[in-house]
Amino acid sequence: MNTNVIRIEDRIIGLDELVDARTAAKITGLSERTIRDKAVRREFRIYKLASNCTKYSVKDLLDWYSDKAIEPKKAA
Length: 76
Hints:
Helix content is about 35%, strand content about 25%. It is α+β, with helices and mostly antiparallel strands. The mean pLDDT is about 90.
């Protein structure tokens, strides 16, 4: 199994790829609007390719997602 890619629906995406807000929303489970809001507040690193083209790094999104994980408490 290749760990340098993820599968979103029928699409295979490399961890080093840049994706749009729709794909970023599928990766994180957030809405497209929330993705854009977080980009404006600089909670995500963004890549401005043009004045109307913002992309997000798949690796950065997955790192952000894993940082939000809460580990369960051990039973005493």
